[in-house]
Amino acid sequence: MASTVGAVTDANAPDTAALYPATRLESARKAAADAGLDALLIAPGADLRYLTGYQALPLERLTCLVVPAAGDPFLVVPELEKAAALASPAGRLGIDISGFGETDDAYAMIARRLPANLRLFAVDNHMWAEKLLAFQAALPGAQAGLAGDVLSVLRMRKTPAEIEALRRAGAAIDRVHRRMGEWLKPGRTEREVAKDIADAILAAGHVTVDFVIVGSGPNGASPHHEVSDRVIRAGDPVVVDIGGTTADGYCSDSTRTYAVGEPPAAFRELYEVLLLAQTAQTGAVRPGITAQELDAVGRDIITSAGYGEHFIHRTGHGIGLETHEEPYIVAGSARALEPGMAFSVEPGIYLPGMFGARIEDIAVCTGDGGERLNLTGRDLVVLPA
Ligand code: ZN
Ligand code: ZN
Which residues lie below 8 Å from residue 147, measured CB to CB, with a gap of 6+? Predict the structure, then answer.
């Protein structure tokens, strides 16, 4: 299994030039200028990778992409990281990459290269607090804001190359779900099953395991239960929500709920309602539908069947270089979906003390509808007990 998967991955080796086009820096500069920001300061993380293709290590030493609203972007890295930065996709962007030594003040170095009248700078939303405080000290006349407001708008509209990367990630996690019968058996603990799943996530074409949720029996009623030492019993429904990140940086996330042997009749009833809701929601994806409307498509079905109070979370979240990003599919969001947006559709019903169920696919809004990137069956899979 692993060897064929490896071959598939090689045949689809990520094309970083297509995935991380050089035009993004100019798009970010323009978005910053339009928002009245004088500069974006981007530390290691998904924003940096999105803008440059550089997957930098988050260290105590500063690595920072600087995108001035007026002027050329540049990257400041510790001298010992410079070779890695140049070898990364950032090295072919034609931007200045400057190293600093162990006794240099990288914050002052950046402040000197920014306009003296800098008023408003924005840092990426996940920059470490100690780095933000150091920037505030180095730029005493300026106010700090968040770059996420402008960058999330760019990131949520995926290019065809990004959709293709998400499609590869979706196919990889589907391969893991298809093997669930090998591991999910009565007498095994959730933790034992999760270990096998984690190994399979890597073997299927991911470079990291981001999460493994195995919620058996009553544990399935807690949406973000991870794993425990509970022993799976015959008749248990089991929620399995798993995801990882592929070599090109894109994430997978898919949930299927299994039954190990014949589950209680009450569970089958609940599952049929959930299946109806999730199927209706994935079928309703199209340009122009708002996030709150898409949420309501499933919530109305679940509520009509009497389970409304047990669907205790939003319908979904955007996905790309991070598992959770914009757009969020949630009540109260009037954001209209656009072609290229990718997000999860994952309604769930949770009966405390009994069991729970969730069905999750990643969906992409296309020009005239939606495409599911997870294609394993959605009917209840009853595994041998
Ligand atoms: Zn999800
Ligand atoms: Zn999930």
Answer: 32, 37, 40, 41, 42, 47, 122, 123, 124, 125
pLDDT of residue 12: 42
CA of 134 to the centre of ligand 1 (A): 35
Ligand 1 centroid to residue 118 C-alpha, Å: 39
Q: For strands 342-345 and 381-383, give the pairing.
A: unpaired
Order of strands across the sheet that contains 96-100: 96-100, 74-78, 64-68, 39-42, 120-123, 143-146
Ligand nearest to the CA of residue 342, numbered in listed order: 1
For residues 302 and 240, membership in a common domain is answered with yes
What the block records as the tokens of 93 is: 């962007």
Predicted TM-score of the model (pTM): 0.93
Tokens, residue 367 = 């020009």
The rounded Å distance from CA 381 to ligand 1 centre is: 20
Q: For position 3, what pLDDT does the model report?
A: 34
241 C-alpha to ligand 2 centroid (Å): 5
* Residue where one domain finishes, among candidates 103, 122, 155: 155
CATH number of the domain residue 378 falls in: 3.90.230.10
If asked whether residues 204 and 132 sit together in one domain, one would say: no
Q: What's the CA-to-centroid distance between 157 and ligand 1, angstroms?
A: 18
Question: Reading across the β-sheet that carries 361-365, which strands appear in turn?
Answer: 325-329, 316-318, 342-345, 361-365, 370-372
- CA–CA distance, 111 with 104 (Å, rounded to integer): 13
**242 CA from centroid of ligand 1 (Å):** 9
Q: Which domain holds residue 374?
A: 160-383
Task: Kindly list the protein residues that place their beta carbon closer than 5 angstroms to ligand 1, a single-atom ion.
Answer: 253, 344
Domain count, the chain: 2
Here the tokens at position 181 are 């019968």
Identify whether residues 234 and 206 lie together within a single domain.
Answer: yes
Q: If you measure from the C-alpha of residue 346 to the centroid of ligand 2, how many angstroms do you get, rounded to a whole number? A: 7
Ligand nearest to the CA of 213: 2
**Ligand index nearest the alpha carbon of residue 358:** 2
Pick from 131, 155, 179: which residue ends a domain?
Answer: 155
The 10s digit of each residue's pLDDT in 240-285 is: 999 999 999 999 999 999 999 999 999 999 999 999 999 999 999 9
